[in-house]
Automatic annotation (TrEMBL):
GO terms for biological process: sulfate assimilation. CDD domains: PAP_phosphatase. Gene3D superfamilies: 3.40.190.80, Fructose-1,6-Bisphosphatase, subunit A, domain 1. Mg(2+) binds at residues 154, 221, 224, 395. This is 3'(2'),5'-bisphosphate nucleotidase. Belongs to the inositol monophosphatase superfamily. It comes from the Eukaryota. Its cofactor is Mg(2+). The lineage of its organism: Eukaryota, Viridiplantae, Streptophyta, Embryophyta, Tracheophyta. Coiled coil: none annotated.
Amino acid sequence: MPLNCSTNVAPTTRSPIITKTSTSSHVNLSLLFKITKKWCPNRLYKRTIACSRSVLSGHLSRTSSALLMEDLKIDLGSQSGDYSRELLVAVRVVQMACSLCQRVQEGLIGKSEDQVKSKDDDSPVTVADWSVQAIVSWVLSECFGSRNVSIIAEEDVHTLSKFEARGILEAVVKTVNECLAEAPMLGLNAPDRPLGSLEVLEAISRCNSTGGPKGRHWVLDPVDGTLGFVRGDQYAVALALIENGEVVLGVLGCPNYPMKKEWLNYHHRYFRLMSKLSPPTSKSWEKGCVMYAKRGSGEAWMQPLVHENKEFVWPNSAIRIQVSSINDPGLATFCEPVEKANSSHSFTAGLAHSVGLRKQPLRVYSMVKYAAIARGDAEIFMKFARAGYKEKIWDHAVGVLIIHEAGGMVTDAGGRPLDFSKGIFLEGLDRGIIACSGPILHERIIDAVNASWDSSNL
């Protein structure tokens, strides 16, 4: 899916088409012609030709250049029809969010008392959760217009707005502004001035959509696997786009999940130590990745995180990922949640034994489980929640899409596709969720579930 169109999604200080100097504007005509002829309607292509004549005669003003870029930006978004512009924005903002989370996690380990609050359900929420939600909301609103953006997200501002949380709010505002100041390195606009507390709270509170079967809704889990995050372990940043009840776009940031499978056996603290001794390069010590896919493309991609003070260049060394070809249960690896509160380990262990799975389960926090299957590190993910627990769409939307496009399967235990059109919950879910690298394993697991279910206590 790496795109040939290198156009920025928003005007930046380093456009590949128009670069400004202190005295004039210069246009890369060959690149501009190539992009507009391939992607844009005839009207804009003719305008490009007219502007080029002005350039050659020295009469193209900065205003004309800006207007041309604005037209190009609008037409690319409205004419492509394949969510390319949405993908460009989503990948960039998830990259930014991952960098934010890495910095917060480094400062959080061993200092959780002053940076962790409890939500009503007693799960921890950190500065990173609110900060990521704020920057994603702000960036999407800037790129697509706040009136056109509907966001379903996990966090609200109730706790953060309380007087006793003013210290946390100050930390969130500081973190948000530090992150947004780096937006130009990712091809995004930064605010004209630092955001104030009310503006940050407003950005977070805009993420109040409840979704549904109609319209376009962004779905965000700012820090999926918060317990893993607090403990310095695996977590993810997940951003999906749902249109008319279908997941059409998904970006999954895994800041502690290494690009190379062979590094999975090393603890994350070892990565931090080695990164300090030998800074990450494109060939070594790459900790962290971003995966993404578009519905119907039949392709899923992974790229490394952008390291500090590096500019983002699309597609940023992206490589195509595919699910494992293993279909023998005896050779397969299965994933399950770390926390027993959200899934029955005993039931999944029984299922694993009944189908002949011999390897130890890979217990991983967050949607990193989906990432592991999508790129072939594992073959099966099973989650069977205890009675009364309702799955939320932000915990699964991105992972389901990426696995599908990477060649795998995700259904409920009855073999039906997950339904993301009913609001914030996966309504009508048949018993649990089963993700597999292929149809053979998938069928074996479903058969085992049907055979074992009546004797379970779920």
